């Protein structure tokens, strides 16, 4: 008679499983997994299966933020009414949706954003999210520019996309520090900041836009 195996059979995993395992680990242990090997062993899957989706734990950490963005983007795409929105309205809807997703994952986000004393180090995990948000903003501005026949009225996509990222950082910090019920103050901040940014970019010379961006960035990173 063949001897019974004493080891548990390893379960097949998906990318979603990995993300859930990882976030649960961080929240339960208040630390990141030390290695892929231990992470796999603790969650009963094969280490090699991890590498089907990510080359490292750091890559997974960055992708969590990408998945937040992609979930928000998918919700917008599924809403047929959004197609008729102006760029300003699309940006408002996007930020409302994204921060609703953040709120559903608030405990994890608060932990990883406060993990290190060096705030810039905490922001390293947002690199892929930065690309997504800048691309989203660029597409909005390009759509606006296509509707304008006068080249002088067309907006600089590089400046606008960078402005959208700086605005996001401002809102992220505001949301993180928001103690209002149901984060109502964050909703107000989103509305006011999006409207202000669009008004500033529509009516302000580029050098003033740069100065405004520097100020906001300084407030977000060094505050």
Describe the structure.
With 223 residues, the chain is mainly alpha-helical. Helix content is 70%, strand content 0%. The model is unreliable at 1-7 (pLDDT under 50).
Q: What would the keywords be for this entry?
A:
mainly alpha; 223 residues; 70% helix; 11 helices; elongated; disordered N terminus; single chain
Number of helices: 11
Percent range for β-strand residues: under 5%
The overall strand count is: 0
Low-confidence stretches: 1-7
SSE order, as H and E? HHHHHHHHHHH
Structural class: mainly alpha
What percent of the residues sit in helical stretches (DSSP H or I)?
over 70%
| Rg from alpha-carbon coordinates | 21 Å
- In round numbers, the mean pLDDT is 85
**Gap from first CA to last CA:** 69 Å
Morphology: elongated
Task: Outline the secondary-structure elements.
Elements: H1 15-29, H2 36-42, H3 47-50, H4 57-78, H5 87-104, H6 106-113, H7 119-123, H8 127-146, H9 157-177, H10 184-203, H11 206-222
Helix pairs in contact: 4-5, 4-8, 5-10, 8-9, 9-10, 9-11
Summarize the structure.
This protein has 223 residues and is mainly alpha-helical. Helices cover 70% and strands 0% of the residues.
